[in-house]
Amino acid sequence: xxxxxxxxxxxxxxxxxxxxxxxxxxxxxxxxxxxxxxxxxxxxxxxxxxxxxxxxxxxxxxxxxxxxxxxxxxxxxxxxxxxxxxxxxxxxxxxxxxxxxxxxxxxxxxxxxxxxxxxxxxxxxxxxxxxxxxxxxxxxxxxxxxxxxxxxxxxxxxxxxxxxxxxxxxxxxxxxxxxxxxxxxxxxxxxxxxxxxxxxxxxxxxxxxxxxxxxxxxxxxxxxxxxxxxxxxxxxxxxxxxxxxxxxxxxxxxxxxxxxxxxxxxxxxxxxxxxxxxxxxxxxxxxxxxxxxxxx
Amino acid sequence: xxxxxxxxxxxxxxxxxxxxxxxxxxxxxxxxxxxxxxxxxxxxxxxxxxxxxxxxxxxxxxxxxxxxxxxxxxxxxxxxxxxxxxxxxxxxxxxxxxxxxxxxxxxxxxxxxxxxxxxxxxxxxxxxxxxxxxxxxxxxxxxxxxxxxxxxxxxxxxxxxxxxxxxxxxxxxxxxxxxxxxxxxxxxxxxxxxxxxxxxxxxxxxxxxxxxxxxxxxxxxxxxxxxxxxxxxxxxxxxxxxxxxxxxxxxxxxxxxxxxxxxxxxxxxxxxxxxxxxxxxxxxxxxxxxxxxxxxxxx
Lengths: 296, 299
Prior knowledge:
The structure holds two protein chains of two kinds. By secondary structure, chain A is mainly alpha-helical.
């Protein structure tokens, strides 16, 4: 019995070391980027990848980011696309999910087959590009907003949540003379709250992280979203158009600039909304998995 | 009879009105593009009507060695991401369940689910810096006396970089489905195994693993439908001129020739080939899975 428990303890130790190391690969890079963005350029340029504390705390990188005209414009565009886009996503997803979960809907089967084909068959980027062009959406933020208006996966998940609402409650409301729209907004949505919050968060994350469509449909740097600018600057290493000659001269401390720290600061700005949304998503979506760990 | 159907549809008119915006969206942004796919058989003209050229573009595709190289890259990267990575999700879920400390488990969960929410642009930004010569990973390896190398521009390791970063991003999130299955197992089963004198391994092999087979099969089949995708966003953001030839996949090829070079017809032809193969894969797996597990990819 005693030998067995030492073996068990050893196993626990191995697990903790392995999983602990794994979580470090996720935490250290993020802390490093944060530390770098908060350090003075003379120090940040010498920082090694595993250093996670700021050196000579300095906000210069954030001062540059938040006074940069293109970055600020793209930040506002991102917020615009995310807010309007998510509202549109939820309006379409909720109304469609409601109609499709009514038990006796005559055309339910053909509609579901239609949606599944729409989900499975990907026409590719050029045919979609031509449609966006023909509809005159090129260059507008609405191209990105409209082209991703409904996600079939999320629609199906939403239907699952709606199906869990007791039909008796819905029927009682109908008998009381409630129309479909009122039933959806005053009965279904509050009762399927966990689903509504979860899917809203999922859509918002997709919206905020979107860069590909925006990079194709929106050409002007001032009209595009943060992720596109971030990609140009951080991934493609395009420091000239990003920081720009005339932009650089706006800063007295030009000589002090460290591009990699500036990149880090831009990444942090792009991360903040995700970090704000994350706990809410966990609370509602992963609640089952997280609660399971408390149980036992 | 016919009249009664019409009557029923009329009585449901509000519901169809609620569905209308969604249907309109799919007609505009999915059905119209599918109709546009006929471009694969035409030469594109901006001002005048397209001219029919038959199978010209398909002959071009299947006659070029570049296409087969790209198809090979796509299949290799897909196999690594969908087949090789797959067991790790299950192992991770089992490891989580074996942890005795609830607080440590919760910590691992909260941290490991996060990368799933980061955009590929941000992930690429993080890893390009982590894997550079002065980056954290090389610094870590130097503790063991391993010389530094530039992973992102090294053609021999870049596919493994894709593999590990994909794992890093999805390990936690994609293991949730298995973990929820494990914690739903009736605890009395484990107690019975313990009374019979079985250790943890016996429980894992004879109770946990059998319970995980159904979700494993389901997830595996679902992934097969996306086999030719191989993760476009990741490849696009992780590629550079030094490694492009090893990780160029169908979708990056379509993007390059279509959007960047303006060869609309050729790019559409590649999309059509990819779409048709994808559909065949999905329907085959659907039929197989219906025969094997009784439930298909859908219903």
